[in-house]
Amino acid sequence: MGYDANGSLVDLHVHSNASDGSCSPEQIVSLALSLGLAAISITDHDTVDGTDEALRLCGGRNIRCISGVEISAAPPEGFPAPGSIHILGYGFSVDDAPLSKVLTLLQGARHQRNTRILERLDSLGIHFTQADVDGQTLPGHPAGRPHIAKLLIRDGYAKDIDDAFERFLGYGKPAYVDKYRVPCDEAVALIRNAGGVPVLAHPGLIAKGVVEDHPAFLKDLIRVLADVGIMGLEVLYPEHDDDMRALLSELASELSLLTTGGSDFHGNAKPEVSLGTGTGDLRVPFSLFTALEKAARNGR
Ligand code: AMP
Ligand code: ZN
Ligand code: FE
Ligand code: FE
Questions:
Q1: Distance from the CA of 270 to the center of ligand 2, in angstroms?
Q2: pLDDT higher for 212 or 2?
């Protein structure tokens, strides 16, 4: 690459329409180029199809790209985190067979969960068909809860995505259905064995408002995850305030973990979040990308 990216910004947490984002990988790469981002990673929920395409699209262009994925995992035993914890993987081989097998399993679990969510909504007098849900995603890619949220908004049952989760789809709400999650140690091992770097996604959101002493909970959780092989923490994230960023940076340095950052861009599925800048003040330096890439190379 014949350009100097030092001083430039990156975005390492981006969803495409291979999961629940609204933009294609091509639209994301074009947008990233127009914003002058030096590197991106597409980190779709439980699929590598979008990231695979982005790797190809970025080849030979003025932007770097590293493979990414966001896996829905179960927290370690004894940690009362409702729902899933999200484990990001970076720099792994996209055609790794054991990883592909587990991702296929997770996609199947999503599909089954969607059917059950529709049954629950049906019993609440809200009728959507499987075709309503499937029509919103690319063929072969099961929808996520945000797609069902869109239908609820369309038909006037919720005013926005947050409201749809609050009324129906969120943990413990009337249309909530659990889905299979990979045990976290297995998710970490899968990513590492595929040559990649596992990173805990948006730690500040885990069990937020659920446990009494949140900082103490996060410290314990992250120490356990570091013991099972997590290699990084997503420190720079739109919903992390300065205190959370400081807490996570300190833990990362104490446990010799990498730090990463990204917007969790979902296109118009989450319109308040912009690529690169998140909700306005996100700045993820290029140096975090190079450190991540180096760690992934060393893992091979
Ligand atoms: P799923 O992968 O189908 O379980 O859906 C998870 C996605 O839904 C996440 O990526 C979030 O973007 C979105 N989400 C989860 N909880 C909420 C919430 N309370 N409000 C709005 N969006 C949410
Ligand atoms: Zn998402
Ligand atoms: Fe996530
Ligand atoms: Fe995400």
A1: 9
A2: 212
Q: Whose CA is nearest to atom 5 of ligand 1?
A: 145
CB 87 within 8 A of CB 226: no
Predicted pLDDT of residue 142: 83
Instruction: Tell me the backbone φ, ψ of residue 60, rounded to 5 degrees.
Output: 75, 5
Report the predicted TM-score, pTM, of the whole model to 2 decimal places: 0.94
List, as one string, the DSSP characters of 217-231: HHHHHHHHHHHTT--
| Closest residue by Cα to residue 16 from 268, 287, 285, 300 | 268
Residue with tokens 């969607």: 114
Hey, what are 22's tokens?
A: 């609204």
**What are the tokens at 93?**
């081989």
CA distance linking residue 24 with residue 50, whole number of Å:
8
Query: Average pLDDT, stretch 38-44?
Result: 98
Residues whose CB falls within 8 Å of the CB of residue 231, separated by 6 or more in sequence, listed in order: 192, 197, 198, 199, 257, 258, 295
How far is ligand 2, taken at its centre, from the CA of residue 126, in Å? 23
Q: From residue 142, how far is each of 53, 72, 150, 176, 220 by CA, in Å?
A: 18, 14, 15, 17, 34
In the chain, what percentage of residues exceed pLDDT 90?
A: 83
Q: Which of 15, 19, 20, 148 to mutate to test the pocket of ligand 1 (most atoms within 8 A of CB)?
A: 20
- CB atoms within 5 A of ion ligand 3 belong to 86, 201
pLDDT, tens only, 215-252? 999 999 999 999 999 999 999 999 999 999 999 999 99
